[in-house]
Amino acid sequence: QGKRLADLSKRLGLRHVVYSGLENVNQLTGGWLEVLHFDGKGVVEEYFQKVGVPTTSIRLPFYFENFLSMFKPQKAAQGDTYVLALPMGDTPMDGMAVEDIGPVVVCLLKSPEEYVGRVIGLSTGKLTEAEYATVVSQQMGKTMKASRISPEYEKGGSPGAKEMAAVFRFYALKPDRNVDLTMKLNPKARTFPQWVADNKAAF
Questions:
Q1: CB-based contact 24:46 (threshold 8 Å)
Q2: Each residue of 166-203: pLDDT tens digit?
Q3: What structural domains does the chain harbor?
Q4: What strands, in cross-sheet order, belong to the sheet with 82-84?
Q5: Would I find NADP among this entry's keywords (predicted)?
Q6: Measured between alpha carbons, how far is residue 151 from residues 19, 37, 81, 163, 179 in Å?
Q7: Does the CA dihedral 174-100-98-107 come out positive or negative?
Q8: 135: part of which helix (H) or strand (E)?
Q9: 135-156 burial by CB neighbour count: b if 16+ within 10 A, else e?
Q10: Residue 156, pLDDT score
């Protein structure tokens, strides 16, 4: 589908495409890791360049909104403590709110002469699992702790666990994300504490 989009963009003579890409993890790690949705986007990124479409690729980080769904803090079995289960240990992980991406794209489209041909990793900050937990705890007034789980949780066999474990293993390699450039492109993009403050009711 991505390659068809690139071919269509070429036929239509589009002067600037902003593509939501990602790293080809399998290629970058020499086959050590495979993250299918990353790898597929990486192949399409290369294809846009190959067919000569003027393209800016943006590579997104972990979405803050994931903390409201699959990574929502869970109440511990005993006491009033909540647990944040993010298999990153002490390695900082980039993040950003989905709704702050749109203004970034608008800014890129307004300045093709500056951004065509570039690959831009987006992020409004990087925190460790414990730091993410601390922010939520401070904002919500609840005791929150990091679970300290590892990507080995995939062995539990839950649906999608293997793919998600591979994603976090790749995040642990610290892929290139540029906080300063992200904030230049969207000065109103929120840090994690700002985003949590805006979304207290959802927690």
A1: yes
A2: 999 999 999 999 999 999 999 999 999 999 999 999 98
A3: 2-202 (3.40.50.720)
A4: 74-75, 82-84, 144-146
A5: yes
A6: 29, 18, 23, 10, 25
A7: negative
A8: helix 129-140
A9: bbbebeeeebbbbebebebbee
A10: 56
Structure tokens at 169: 């293993």
* Matching residue, tokens 């289960």: 85
- Extended strands (E) in 66-183: 74-75, 82-84, 93-96, 119-121, 126-127, 144-146
- Residue 198 carries which side chain, given as an amino acid letter? D
Distance separating alpha carbons of residues 54 and 107, to the nearest angstrom:
16
Q: Which strands make up the sheet holding 119-121, listed edge to edge?
A: 17-21, 55-59, 119-121
- Structure tokens belonging to residue 164: 């998600």
Backbone phi, psi, residue 184, to 5°? -70, -40
Q: Residue holding tokens 């070429």?
A: 10
Mean pLDDT of the chain: 93
Whole-Å CA distances, 194 to 9, 45, 100, 174? 37, 32, 12, 23
Residue 186 near residue 103 (C-beta atoms within 8 A): yes
The answer to whether the CB of 84 falls within 8 A of the CB of 34 is no
